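Contributing new records

If you add data, match the layout below exactly. Sequence lines come first and carry their own label; structure lines follow with theirs. Keep one chain per record. Anything else will be rejected by the validation script.
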Amino acid sequence: MNTKTTVLSARLLLGTAILSTIFTVGTAAAASHNVTVSIHLSTSGIDLTDPVAARRFYRRIEHAAWMVCTSNTIRVGLEPVDDAKGCTEKALGAAIRSVEAPLLTQIYLANHTLRQAAAQGIEVPAPLAAK
């Protein structure tokens, strides 16, 4: 029974792109606390080997990354991050790294450098790294 649960958990983890970032929450005493905000996007039913589906999913990831770094702060009363663009890039990179889909990595590299990918911990397939 434990083996089935572990396998199911591993499959669920692989089927979910996790976008998260850290916000600072101000309190009345001017102390701050770190809060992790995340949006889970399921890859269930999405063929990430299909270029059209992969591009559509990549746009969903970009949108969710932006939402995590901007809109959620207003909704739950958090102070906005100092660098929304940097926050979005960090969340996008974390999601691409999490999914580990070569086609998503290619789409990411169409808009980012190999250095940016490396900074986000994204593994670049050998044929792409040689370019």
